[in-house]
Specification:
Blueprint (H helix, E strand, L loop, with lengths): L1 H12 L1 H10 L6 E5 L5 H8 L3 E6 L2 H10 L4 E4 L12 E7 L8 H11 E12 L5 E2 L4 H13 L10 H7 L2 E13 L5 H7 L3 H12 L5 E12 L2
Parallel strand pairs: 1-2, 1-4, 2-3, 4-5
Antiparallel strand pairs: 5-8, 6-8, 7-8
Length: 229
């Protein structure tokens, strides 16, 4: 868990990630549930803005960490498809980099509609795991690493379906944006190692970082919609 938290913290601190997180907060209102909240940073930041911020995660260890880090937030261990909230009880729903690990993402979006009040805003963000871009001297090996990691997830390509998921569940005014997180320094190396790269391939990337020749880009999809009345 400590390794995962270290990686998540490093990613969350990057300026582009901070800016994207701020964008996801727009229009969420004064009562927000963050599904798959992880270590709770978004919940803490929303609470600091005066919102009733509720974090939900299926991992008890993550909820324990989030509660310790962000005491102003409200945290629950729960499934994304069975939130501990009443019908229409929140004005904002946020799910960041979580739908790809769920067995049935559509159930989570249906649950978002249930807990949102009419006019409430749902925001879904995450990467399409097939579209990670890495400059490498071995493009065949790179493609294999990316696709192998993607194929080991329940729904690696769910981000390209965010818009249709929202439309399928009755959301209106649905919009989609793409924001790229870019690394050109050694900060990408833990990400690449977590992706599954090792040995000669990872050594090449480390050398690129030392020579200021590293390039990694991860397109992040942000879809949002309004809960119809």
């Amino acid at each position: 868990m400590s390794t995962l938290l270290t990686l998540l913290d490093a990613l969350d601190d990057r300026p582009r990630a901070v800016a994207l997180r701020e964008r996801t907060y727009r229009g969420l209102g004064d009562a927000v549930v963050d599904v798959g909240c992880g270590s709770g940073r978004a919940v803490g930041e929303l609470a600091a803005r005066g919102a009733r911020a509720i974090g939900v995660d299926a991992d008890p260890a993550m909820i324990e960490t989030a509660t310790a880090r962000w005491p102003a937030g409200e945290f629950h261990v729960a499934d994304a498809a069975a939130l501990p909230l009443g019908d229409g009880s929140v004005t904002g729903y946020r799910a960041d980099k979580v739908l790809h690990v769920l067995p049935e993402p559509a159930l989570a979006v249906a649950e978002a509609r249930r807990v949102l009040a009419p006019g409430g805003r749902a925001v879904l963000t995450g990467q399409d795991w097939d579209t990670i871009v890495i400059d490498s001297d071995d493009p065949v090996r790179t493609r294999s690493i990316v696709h192998t990691r993607a194929d080991g997830m329940p729904h690696p390509r769910i981000a390209r379906r965010y818009r249709n998921l929202l439309l399928d569940h009755g959301f209106t005014d649905v919009t989609v944006e793409v924001h790229a997180l870019v690394w050109t320094d050694a900060g990408a190396l833990p990400v690449l190692a977590n992706l599954g790269g090792d040995g000669t391939w990872l050594a090449e990337q480390a050398a690129r970082a030392r020579d200021d020749r590293l390039f990694v880009a991860v397109p992040i999809f942000l879809a949002a919609g309004t809960r119809a009345g």
